Amino acid sequence: MSAKIYYDSDADLSILNNKQIVFLGFGNQGAAQAQNLRDTGIPNERILIANRQDAYAEDAISKGFKVENDFTKAAKEADVLFLLIPDQVQPKVFNEQFAPHLKSTATVVIASGYNVFFKLLKFSPKQDVVMVAPRMIGSSVRSLYQKGKGFPCFISAEQDGSGQGLRIALALSRAIGATKAGAIASSAREETVMDLFAEQALWPNIIMLFREAFSVLKEAGCSDEALCYEMWMSKEPAEIFERAAEEGFITQLKHHSTVSQFGQLSGALALDGTAAREHFKNILYNQVLNGKFCQEFSKIEDALEKDGPENPLNELYRRAGQTELGQAEKRVRARLAGLL
C-alpha cells in the first residue's frame, strides 16, 4: 500500500499567520524545529519556548528566543503547541500543567505517536492534534534545513477539531523544512507500532546476534581487539547502513568484495525465517499493539527519574555491561584510549 507524500506546493504557510507558537521543550528536536520555523519567516515574537530553568532554557535564550518558565502562562498563549519533551513525562506535564489552560481551539503537535496512540493525553474535542515527526535527529533536521535540503518526516491529523488540522500540519511541516523532501502521510498508530517494534523486536535481536557471534569467535581464538574493531568499532556497520539508505538495502552489497556478496546473499536466502517471524509477531501483537508494554512501562516511569540501582534502566545497563562482549569492549577501550 502506497502512502501519500506531501511537498512544498501542498502547504500554505499563511494559515500560520498571527498564530502564537509554543515549544514545550528545547532539546534535540525543539531547538532545531524552532530555529527552522524562524528562518522560514515565522516572526521571532510569535515563537515562545516553554521550559524550566535549566541549560536548555539558557540555550534558547542564547539563540534569541523568549523563554517562559511558567507553564500555565505559556499554555494560555499557545495557538500551536509543539509537545517535544520525552514520552514518559508528557502525560504528567501536559495533562496537569497545559491541558487545563490551553485554548479550546489550540493545535497540539506531537513528534511521537506513543501517548496519542495509547490515549494517555487529554485533549479538548475542538482542538486539532497533529503529528509532525521528523525521522532523524534534531541536529540533522537543522543542518539539512540550512543546506536547503529536506528530510523525511511523518505527518497526520489525529484529531481534526477545527476542520483545518491537515492544513496546519502541512504548513508546520513546510515551515520546519520537511516538505522540501516530501512529508509522508502516516498516523500515530503506524509511527508507534514501527518504533516500538524496532525497539523491542528488531534491535534486541541484532544486539543478541552480535553478543553471541562475539562469544563464538572468541572461543575460536579471536582476540578482543580484533573482534571489537571487526564487528563495530571500525564503523563499517555504520557505513553499510549509510550506503543502504542512499542506494538500497540490497544494492549496497555491490560495494563489498565478491566473497562478501556471495556469502551474505546466499547465506541470507538459505536462512529459514519462520521462527524469527513468529517471534516478531508475538512481540507485535502480544506486547505492542495490545498495550502490555505501555502498561508495564507506566509502572516504572517514576523510578526512571532516580539515580543508582533503584533506576531499572541503570540495572539493565549494568547487566549488559557484564556480558562477555561488554567486558571485552571495556578492556579494549582502556588499552586503546589514545587511538579512539
Structure explained in plain terms:
It is built from 15 helices and 9 strands. It is of the alpha/beta class and 340 residues long. It has 2 domains: 5-186, NAD(P)-binding Rossmann-like Domain (Rossmann fold); 191-336, no CATH class. Strands 1-9-8-7-6-5-2-3-4 form a 9-stranded mixed beta sheet, with helices on both faces. β3, α2 (55-62) and β4 form a beta-alpha-beta unit. α8 packs antiparallel against α9 (224-233). The two termini are 45 Å apart. It holds the Pfam family KARI_N.
The radius of gyration is 23 Å
Class from secondary-structure proportions:
alpha/beta
Q: What fold name goes in the CATH topology slot of the largest domain?
A: Rossmann fold
Strand proportion, as a percent range, falls in 5-15%
CATH architecture of the largest domain: 3-Layer(aba) Sandwich
- Count of DSSP H/I helices: 15
Order of neighbouring strands in the sheet with most strands? 1-9-8-7-6-5-2-3-4
Order of helices and strands: EEHEHEHEHEHEHEHEHHHHHHHH
Domain KARI N-terminal Rossmann: 3-186
Keywords: Amino-acid biosynthesis, Branched-chain amino acid biosynthesis, Oxidoreductase
Protein name: Acetohydroxy-acid reductoisomerase
GO molecular function, one term: ketol-acid reductoisomerase activity
